[in-house]
Amino acid sequence: MYIDSHAHFDLALEDASVSEPMLLDALRAGSVERAVQVGIDCESSGWSRDFAKRNAAAGILFTAGIHPSSAADDRELGKLAGLVESVLSDDDAPLLFGIGECGLDYYRKRTPNEMQVHSFRFQIELARKHGLPIIVHSRDAMEETLAILGEHPGTAGIMHCFSGDAAAARRVLDLGFLVSFAGNVTYASARVLHEAAAYVPLDRLLVETDAPFLTPVPLRGKKNRPEYIAHTYRFIAELRHETLARVADAVRENFSRVVNHEVKAV
User: Fold this and answer.
1) What are the CA-CA distances from residue 109 to residues 70, 100, 117, 168 (Å)?
2) Which domains does the chain have, with CATH numbers?
3) Where are the alpha helices (DSSP H) in the chain?
4) Predicted local confidence at residue 263, as pLDDT
5) Model-level pTM?
């Protein structure tokens, strides 16, 4: 059985040929026992909450957060804080996996750097206030991302869709974070990611699809789906010379530590 620690079902459903029941049926058929629907702004975070409530029996959890490419003025950040407080005071509180995805994206540059930094720091403090893990996005901004996280020692979370080398992975691990790999680790040209995926200890490893993006080999070219995650698990297991069962068991245990708020900085 597999865990998909980071997916965007709402974006997958923008494809008119895909329906919510189809996605959930495919999860079961693909042996995906739990998956996290990730918010990227206040609207999608609200949708994520409703989606997880509808599909809790299928193992769906959700996050609430504002992606660095999404506008995040003080009004939006206030709405996010209000949403999180609403969730935590309601019966669906156990479905809230964490805060995010948030962080820095200096590749797309869809929002000003200053807004990204302010939003990131706000969401780190929001996560710390409520004792929740933070799900971090970092693209072309690893140094800046790690510097900001370093300002908040003891913050727990996940570096999602990790894109650095083994040295960067070591720095993420030193902050106490788990490291999550997506389908791009399966690409032949991604030698730096291969190095990092072989380096990260099993007890700090997560696997994700980031669906509908980063479809793994051999399905590259299609829109990604959470059930495709088995290919990424197999690749990582072979890369590490581990059995598939051992990698899947380790990821399940690591995921459970996050769900149970047992991930702490080292």
Assistant:
1) 10, 18, 12, 22
2) 2-259 (3.20.20.140)
3) 9-12, 20-29, 42-54, 74-88, 113-130, 142-150, 166-174, 191-199, 229-240, 244-259
4) 66
5) 0.97
